[in-house]
Specification:
Blueprint (H helix, E strand, L loop, with lengths): L2 H21 L6 H21 L2 H11 L1
Helix pairs in contact: 1-2
Length: 64
């Protein structure tokens, strides 16, 4: 795994921990909240990828 990718995950986990602390999430619930935040981040990344012009154009050309 590249160091940039590792840094991304380190930052993502740090952000998740900060949200849990800021919002007062109980320690026993922090794991599931962190998982939900990471899942949400993944779906957002997929959405952005699917919205790129190259992907949209490729899908249109497949239909033609």
């Amino acid at each position: 795994m590249s160091s940039m990718r590792q840094e991304y995950f380190v930052d993502l986990l740090k952000d998740c921990r900060e949200v849990c602390e800021r919002e007062g999430i109980e320690p026993e619930d922090q794991g599931i909240v962190t998982a939900a935040l990471i899942f949400s981040d993944s779906l957002n990344g997929l959405r952005k990828a699917l919205m790129t012009p190259a992907f949209v154009l490729a899908q249109q050309s497949r239909r033609d």
